[in-house]
């Protein structure tokens, strides 16, 4: 009991000074240069919204984290310690972003992971962007990115520490753009630089097929379940630029922003007919996301 109270006291003290990072259960913000997360991007990560004191869709995030560890053959993750650290770092937090990184741990030079059975756990808290609610209400301006996603089904779906394609795509965005459309090497539009893509066409919702690349977002899965509950037809298929042009509505989702709808493409206003299309689907989805998150203010 004494150790728990001591850790909590230390946590509250450090939070006061904005040092809110745990590395393997210790409050610190550094790790050995030999860690394979740094050396090779050998690891996985999750971003979880804390809203109204709740870790939103925590179980779903942890399942994807486990999927990623299993796919990369990162073994011996101390899940009990991870759960304790999540509770410790998020205690008394009303509104924040929790980032969890799991690396294979430290090792010598070379790619071989033989004999490495001590993964590194890194948890950190971050202030949510102040513009989240503004863009939820006003909509966003998007552009096409030239950076393309390579195909690798073995790594598709979960979040690895190899994010250079997303970094390059994000770096293309001008100051007046909030998101970008990213295609794969075949020219199919896969996702945003940081979010999943949905189109509304008539009474149907369409989202890209993510079998070769792309992230199977936790909020994406939540949206898909909401659509099923509302008996709204959802189609997963390849999406082209022509599909973007023909869409009645376009929106992006992730665990932090919730849902952002599009009002401009390449700085050009969406046509009046499309902009004033029935917003029932988007309103329903936004209502359920707000209900899930609660009042974080």
TrEMBL record:
Pathway: Cofactor biosynthesis; tetrahydrofolate biosynthesis; 4-aminobenzoate from chorismate: step 2/2. It holds the Pfam family Aminotran_4. SUPFAM superfamilies: D-aminoacid aminotransferase-like PLP-dependent enzymes (SSF56752). Its EC number is 4.1.3.38. GO terms for molecular function: 4-amino-4-deoxychorismate lyase activity; pyridoxal phosphate binding. GO terms for cellular component: cytosol. Keywords: Folate biosynthesis, Lyase, Pyridoxal phosphate. Its cofactor is pyridoxal 5'-phosphate. The keyword DNA damage does not apply. It catalyses: 4-amino-4-deoxychorismate = 4-aminobenzoate + pyruvate + H(+). One of its GO terms (biological process) is 4-aminobenzoate biosynthetic process. PROSITE patterns: AA_TRANSFER_CLASS_4. Signal peptide: none annotated. It comes from the Bacteria. Involved in the biosynthesis of p-aminobenzoate (PABA), a precursor of tetrahydrofolate. Converts 4-amino-4-deoxychorismate into 4-aminobenzoate (PABA) and pyruvate. Homodimer. Belongs to the class-IV pyridoxal-phosphate-dependent aminotransferase family. PANTHER family: AMINO-ACID AMINOTRANSFERASE, AMINODEOXYCHORISMATE LYASE. This is Aminodeoxychorismate lyase. It comes from Leucothrix mucor.
